[in-house]
């Protein structure tokens, strides 16, 4: 055997065939005692990304005692899922009752049959457990400014009229701009308007009284998180007037702060599962994002926790179909995902064999076949397959960006609930829709 072949064999020892949930054993071994596992996706509309993340999450919950799942979704909507899976009063009797209220484009990200199945499993798992042992489901994102403030007003009017006045002042400040963050950003640019003082005062008011909000086990967490969203969403929209990537960093910093808040709320032994796009959970320092000064939650977790306490798992596929739109607010479509670009991570793994694979990375081994920069596919909620050869790929050092990688050779579109999105509730996300 020559030296090149020997090196290839050595690097491929960390590659495993993936056919069912029991094949995840090497990943569970790699996770070990880590208390934060982040599970990515290369698109927001692929069935297998959701089902494999569900399979991993179930095993982490059952075998390693993980405490909650936190996702790239709005807090108010996700909190309704949390209430349902924990069996809180008036939380609905079926997943579809909850998911049909999701109306922010792209609705398919969470209002889909794959999430409905996860909700049923979580509710069954939680049945009979004490409240502090029930597994939760939360949203990490920053976009729900109006929904969060409306939730605050509704709750505080019933429980704390004094704090409700602060909430009304904040919501009245934003009223002239409607529910479009861009309108608020333009107002700051041209008229020096700002609602910053109002939302900060609201947060101060709530933080001093949060411990008294106890009508259900997580009322204080819910009310305080909605106030933090008001502050950070205002900051996010204000940043839109700049010509930098500050808004991206504000968004991921908010998600990291929310994750820390959830871990603190659930106690020193809590364990977190995070579901987000690869662009968020894959360490930004090992992509071209670094050159633009961009950070993400995967990088922040490695920096803030010990690296042995965090495991980042990326996902990718060679070809198939996906749910996406051809512009913001467009109807969802099933689109064809063409075969991966030559020289990409996905093309190389396909060439090694058209089967699903689990890769466990050795970041120290310089001979590891993914230790150099390669194109790695990333599909957003807005997608144009015909343009993919010229975009949709992130230069990546795969074995440093992730600790493990799940490659799925052929994938298909997920199964949305066919909701009609409210086009007035579109988040102003990063241009690629991650």
From TrEMBL:
List, alphabetically, the SUPFAM superfamilies matched.
EreA/ChaN-like
Fetch the InterPro entries from UniProt: Emycin_Estase (IPR007815), Hydrolase/PRTase-associated (IPR052036), UCP036794_erythomycin (IPR014622)
Any idea what this protein is called?
A: Erythromycin esterase homolog
């Amino acid at each position: 055997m020559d030296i090149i072949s020997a090196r290839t064999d050595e690097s491929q020892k960390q590659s495993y065939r993936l056919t069912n949930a029991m094949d995840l054993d090497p990943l569970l071994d790699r996770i070990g005692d880590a208390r934060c596992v982040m599970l990515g996706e290369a698109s927001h509309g692929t069935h297998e990304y959701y089902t494999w993340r569900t399979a991993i999450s179930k095993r982490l919950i059952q075998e390693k005692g993980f405490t909650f799942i936190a996702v790239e979704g709005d807090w108010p909507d996700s909190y309704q899922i949390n209430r349902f899976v924990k069996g809180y009063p008036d939380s609905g009797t079926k997943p579809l009752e909850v998911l049909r209220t999701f109306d922010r484009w792209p609705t398919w990200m969470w209002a889909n049959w794959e999430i409905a199945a996860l909700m049923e499993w979580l509710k069954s798992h939680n049945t009979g457990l004490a409240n502090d042992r029930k597994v939760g489901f939360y949203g990490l994102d920053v976009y729900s400014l109006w929904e969060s403030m409306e939730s605050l007003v509704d709750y505080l009017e019933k429980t704390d009229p004094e704090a409700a006045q602060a909430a009304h002042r904040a919501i009245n400040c934003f009223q002239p701009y409607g529910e479009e963050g861009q309108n608020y950003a333009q107002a700051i640019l041209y008229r020096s308007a700002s609602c910053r003082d109002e939302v900060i005062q609201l947060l101060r008011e709530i933080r001093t009284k949060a411990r008294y909000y106890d009508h259900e086990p997580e009322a204080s967490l819910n009310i305080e998180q909605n106030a933090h969203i008001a502050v950070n969403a205002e900051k996010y929209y204000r940043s839109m007037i700049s010509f930098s990537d500050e808004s991206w960093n504000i968004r991921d910093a908010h998600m990291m702060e929310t994750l820390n808040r959830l871990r603190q709320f659930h106690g020193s032994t809590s364990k977190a599962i995070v579901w987000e796009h690869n662009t968020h959970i894959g360490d930004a320092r090992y992509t071209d994002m670094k050159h633009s000064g961009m950070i993400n939650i995967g990088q922040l977790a490695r920096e803030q926790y010990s690296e042995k306490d965090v495991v980042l798992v990326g996902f990718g596929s060679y070809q198939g179909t996906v749910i996406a739109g051809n512009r913001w607010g467009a109807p969802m479509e099933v689109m064809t995902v063409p075969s991966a670009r030559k020289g990409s991570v996905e093309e190389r793994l396909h060439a090694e064999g058209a089967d699903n694979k689990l890769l466990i990375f050795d970041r120290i081994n310089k001979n590891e076949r993914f230790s150099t920069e390669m194109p790695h596919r990333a599909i957003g909620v807005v997608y144009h397959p015909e343009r993919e050869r010229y975009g949709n790929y992130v230069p990546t050092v795969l074995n440093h960006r992730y600790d493990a990688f799940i490659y799925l050779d052929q994938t298909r579109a997920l199964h949305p609930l066919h909701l009609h999105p409210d086009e007035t509730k579109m988040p102003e996300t990063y241009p690629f829709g991650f």
